[in-house]
Design brief:
Order of helices and strands: HEEEEHEEHEEEEHE
Number of domains: 2
Helix content: 10-25%
Strand content: 15-25%
Distance between the termini: 67 Å
Structural class: alpha+beta
Oligomer: single chain
CATH topology of the largest domain: OB fold (Dihydrolipoamide Acetyltransferase, E2P)
Number of strands: 11
CATH architecture of the largest domain: Beta Barrel
């Protein structure tokens, strides 16, 4: 009876443990796009990996755009720490295929210690925030809780507000954005068409979009 009970407990715990695995994939960083996005040449793979080099977007943090004064310093910080280094990914299990509407893997990123073990106490997502190169945005449509990145007793940064869609607001307007991104688009934009319906947020003007913390899409170039 005890062995059966133990198996049942194990069967219950395994999905929970798998959901928080810091080693679902790994690889060498080959390119840093900006503070919160980079390219990874995969060596340890996961069923959700489909390319030899995958683009990774840090979960629940937001760095300044490269077009702003604070963008390049954030990229330099990320480059110094990540470029040419091996990192490990905990890929989001809640979003479809672990990806955002732009096809990037959504992940908490872990560095390797000198002895080759994974540093699970200080994910790069947290390091970027601690260094002042990103703000925390706790998106509810992924599995992660940024509060767990800081140990008990260590002050946590304030959360940057995440825009919410009112259930009474019709899904129409001059521009559309995604709750998983910080870009706004013309509705006809090829990237806008990739936004999942439940993630859409609509704006009546570019001023409204910018006030909510969104920036223009580089493809369709709205005002």
């Amino acid at each position: 009876m005890r062995s059966i009970l133990a198996l049942l407990i194990l069967a219950y715990l395994l999905p929970i443990l798998a959901a928080a695995a810091p080693d679902e994939a790994s690889g060498i960083v080959t390119n840093v796009v900006d503070g919160d996005t980079f390219d990874l040449r995969i060596d340890k793979t996961d069923p959700r990996i489909i390319y030899e080099i995958e683009r990774v977007r840090l979960a629940d943090v937001d760095s300044p755009e490269m077009s702003t004064p604070d963008g390049p310093p954030a990229k330099v910080f990320a480059t110094d720490i990540l470029l040419g280094k091996k990192v490990w990914l905990d890929i989001d299990d809640k979003s479809r295929d672990g990806r955002d509407p732009y096809g990037r893997l959504i992940a908490v990123v872990y560095l390797e210690d000198r002895d080759g073990t994974i540093n699970t106490t200080h994910p790069f997502n947290r390091l970027l925030v601690d260094a002042g190169h990103a703000v925390v945005k706790d998106f509810t449509n992924n599995e992660f809780d940024p509060a767990t990145w800081w140990e008990e007793g260590i002050p946590q940064p304030e959360l940057s507000p995440v825009p919410e869609i009112s259930t009474t607001t019709a899904k129409s307007g001059q521009f559309v954005g995604s709750l998983e991104s910080d870009k706004y688009h013309y509705p006809s934009c090829r990237w806008a068409k990739k936004i999942l319906p439940q993630n859409e947020i609509w704006f009546s003007s570019s001023q409204d979009a910018r006030a909510a913390g969104y920036v223009p899409c580089g493809a369709c170039k709205p005002p």
